[in-house]
């Protein structure tokens, strides 16, 4: 049971390693921003929820921000409505000098091992206004997930190297327990190391 669990874990880790490595390498060739906006309206209050994904050098940046505007009149609300319009995922190619950390730097928070987290709630002064951001580096998880395939490969090679080794188990059920010890060759045709 433990062996099958370790194999399953190794398989999942291998897929995650390949995914992280692919995103890491691709980030040095193509930097892109994906953005989606969902909007609602509550009377004269316009509300938008913006989701942003950045794949760039060094890692991945994710943010989810909610913003609102309370109009003074129906005419004022209609005037600002285009800025709160909903749209599906849009892609924008970024410059070569842009990294995922560039977007997280706007939070003025430090990172730890490349990871960053930001959360702010402005709803006390502005209704519905919240922001959450994550910065996920590619290097740290890539090397972490590489450990599992490496250990798995080592275990396979070690098991393959031990195929030629035999264990002689003596039992009272056999009339002659010394048969294997007197066999000049093992099952692979190699000389019996016991002789």
The helix content is: 25-40%
Can you tell me the overall shape? elongated
Largest beta-sheet characterization:
6 strands, antiparallel
Helix vs. strand class: alpha+beta
Specify Rg, calculated over alpha carbons. 30 Å
Order of SSEs? HEEEHEHEEHH
Low-pLDDT stretches are none
How confident is the prediction overall: mean pLDDT? 80
Strand coverage percent: 25-35%
Separation, N- and C-terminal Cα atoms: 37 Å
- How do the strands of the widest beta sheet line up side by side? 4-1-2-3-6-5
As for the number of domains, it is 2
How many extended strands?
6
Layout of helices and strands:
Elements: H1 2-27, E1 32-42, E2 45-56, E3 59-70, H2 74-80, E4 87-93, H3 100-104, E5 116-121, E6 130-137, H4 139-161, H5 179-182
Antiparallel strand pairs: 1-2, 1-4, 2-3, 3-6, 5-6
Helix pairs in contact: 1-4
Structure description:
This protein is of the alpha+beta class. It folds into 2 domains: 2-142, no CATH class; 164-195, no CATH class. Helices cover 33% and strands 29% of the residues. It has 5 helices and 6 strands; from the N terminus they run H-E-E-E-H-E-H-E-E-H-H. The protein has helices spanning 2-27, 74-80, 100-104, 139-161, 179-182, and strands at 32-42, 45-56, 59-70, 87-93, 116-121, 130-137. A 6-stranded antiparallel beta sheet has the order 4-1-2-3-6-5. Helix 1 (2-27) crosses helix 4 (139-161). The longest helix has 26 residues, at 2-27. It is elongated, with a radius of gyration of 30 Å. The two termini are 37 Å apart. The mean pLDDT is 80.
């Amino acid at each position: 049971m433990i062996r099958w669990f370790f194999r399953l874990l190794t398989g999942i880790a291998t897929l995650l390693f390949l995914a992280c490595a692919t995103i890491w390498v691709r980030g040095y060739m193509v930097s892109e921003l994906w953005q989606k906006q969902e909007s609602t309206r509550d009377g004269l209050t316009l509300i938008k929820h913006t989701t942003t994904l950045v794949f760039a050098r060094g890692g991945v940046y994710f943010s989810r921000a909610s913003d609102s505007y309370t109009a003074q009149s129906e005419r004022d609300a209609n005037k600002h409505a285009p800025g709160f319009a909903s749209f599906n995922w849009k892609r924008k190619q970024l410059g070569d000098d842009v990294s995922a950390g560039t977007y997280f730097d706007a939070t003025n928070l430090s990172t730890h091992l490349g990871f960053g987290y930001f959360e702010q709630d402005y709803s006390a002064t502005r209704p519905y206004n919240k922001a959450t951001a994550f910065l996920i580096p590619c290097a740290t998880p890539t090397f972490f997930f590489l450990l599992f395939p490496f250990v798995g490969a080592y275990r396979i090679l070690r098991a393959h190297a031990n195929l030629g080794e035999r264990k002689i188990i003596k039992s009272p059920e056999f009339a002659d327990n010394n048969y294997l010890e007197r066999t000049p060759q093992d099952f692979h045709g190699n000389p019996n190391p016991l002789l």
